[in-house]
């Protein structure tokens, strides 16, 4: 199967560390400012190569990496405090925190800890089992299924590589980015066994966040700022 990588646009932010496609457009969240922007991928500036910003919201997150959309909210992952700006009252000091955020205003609707402590770099609303989130857990190198209503862990599968990042749920499995290894692995949702994989070779931008983009994928690179489409034929 042929895999094609296409640079779609540059982020408006310096370190876009999560991406999420919705019916409104493409959301990116920045690790530096902890702001999230809703972008129009069909309206890209010829001059700067950035997508048109339809809306921007602040968040109470800190050192943000990981984002999902579901149940009328955005969900973002704070991975501890920030060393590049002054502290804010809502900053996460240790471990990771999941913020439920109003996508219109950025107001925090709820906050809960990453299961087991430690951080998380990837998250997805489970469209196959509504009412649940899928979270990568860096400390344990796992993917956890969390029930939103009581924040209880329902199921855990191992991840095959370190630094699990962006997550995309498909009907027959779950795709997880492993940034350091430049590979996106499709896993069996029941036992974590590998079903498929996509290698992201140099010189393509490094995958961090990941989202479904129609029948394709898009990913963001927090280092170069590029948003890239992956298609397979």
Compile the SSE list and pairings.
Blueprint: E1 3-10, E2 16-22, E3 25-30, E4 36-44, E5 51-57, E6 64-70, E7 73-78, E8 97-101, E9 108-113, E10 123-125, E11 132-137, E12 142-147, E13 152-158, E14 164-170, E15 173-178, E16 183-187, E17 194-199, E18 209-213, E19 216-220, E20 226-232
Antiparallel strand pairs: 1-20, 2-3, 3-4, 4-5, 6-7, 7-8, 8-9, 10-11, 11-12, 12-13, 14-15, 15-16, 16-17, 18-19, 19-20
Can you describe this structure?
The protein has 233 residues and is an all-beta fold. It has one domain (3-232): Neuraminidase (6 Propeller), CATH 2.120.10.30. It is built from no helices and 20 strands. It has a four-stranded antiparallel β-sheet, with no helix packed on it. It has a four-stranded antiparallel β-sheet with strand order 2-3-4-5, with no helix packed on it. Strands 6-7-8-9 form a four-stranded antiparallel β-sheet, with no helix packed on it. The radius of gyration is 16 Å and the shape is globular. The relative contact order is 0.18. The mean pLDDT is 95.
Q: If helices are DSSP runs of H or I spanning 4 or more residues, what is the number of helices? A: 0
- CATH architecture heading: 6 Propeller
Tell me the count of domains: 1
The H-and-E topology, N to C, reads as EEEEEEEEEEEEEEEEEEEE
Question: Would you count the extended β strands for me?
Answer: 20
- CATH T-level fold name: Neuraminidase
Q: Give the helix proportion (percent range).
A: under 10%
- Structural class call reads mainly beta
Rg calculated over all Cα atoms? 16 Å
Weakly predicted, low-confidence segments: none
Termini separation (Å)? 6 Å
Shape: globular
Determine and state the CATH class: Mainly Beta
Q: Describe the biggest sheet?
A: 4 strands, antiparallel
Averaged pLDDT: 95
**CATH level-four homologous superfamily name:** TolB, C-terminal domain
| % residues in beta strands | over 45%
Strand order of the largest sheet: 1-20-19-18
């Amino acid at each position: 199967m042929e895999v094609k990588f296409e640079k779609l646009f540059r982020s408006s932010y310096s370190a876009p560390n999560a991406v999420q496609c919705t019916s409104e457009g493409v959301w990116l969240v920045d690790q530096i400012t902890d702001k999230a922007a809703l972008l129009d991928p069909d309206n890209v500036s010829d001059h700067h190569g950035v997508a048109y910003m339809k809306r921007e919201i602040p968040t109470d997150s800190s050192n943000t990496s990981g984002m999902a959309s579901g149940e009328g909210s955005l969900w973002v992952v704070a991975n501890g405090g920030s060393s590049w700006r002054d502290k804010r009252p809502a900053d996460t000091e240790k471990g990771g925190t999941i913020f439920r955020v109003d996508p219109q205003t950025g107001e925090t609707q709820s906050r809960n800890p990453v299961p087991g402590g430690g951080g998380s770099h990837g998250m997805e609303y489970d469209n196959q089992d509504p009412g649940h989130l899928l979270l990568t857990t860096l400390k344990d190198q796992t993917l956890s299924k969390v029930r939103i209503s009581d924040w209880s862990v329902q199921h855990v599968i191992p991840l095959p590589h370190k630094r699990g990042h962006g997550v995309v749920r498909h009907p027959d499995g779950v795709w997880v980015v492993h940034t350091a290894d430049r590979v996106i692995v499709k896993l069996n949702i029941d036992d974590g066994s590998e079903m498929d994989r996509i290698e992201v070779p140099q010189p393509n931008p490094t995958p961090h966040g990941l989202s479904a983009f129609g029948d394709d994928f898009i990913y963001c690179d927090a280092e170069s700022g590029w948003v890239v489409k992956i298609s397979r034929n």
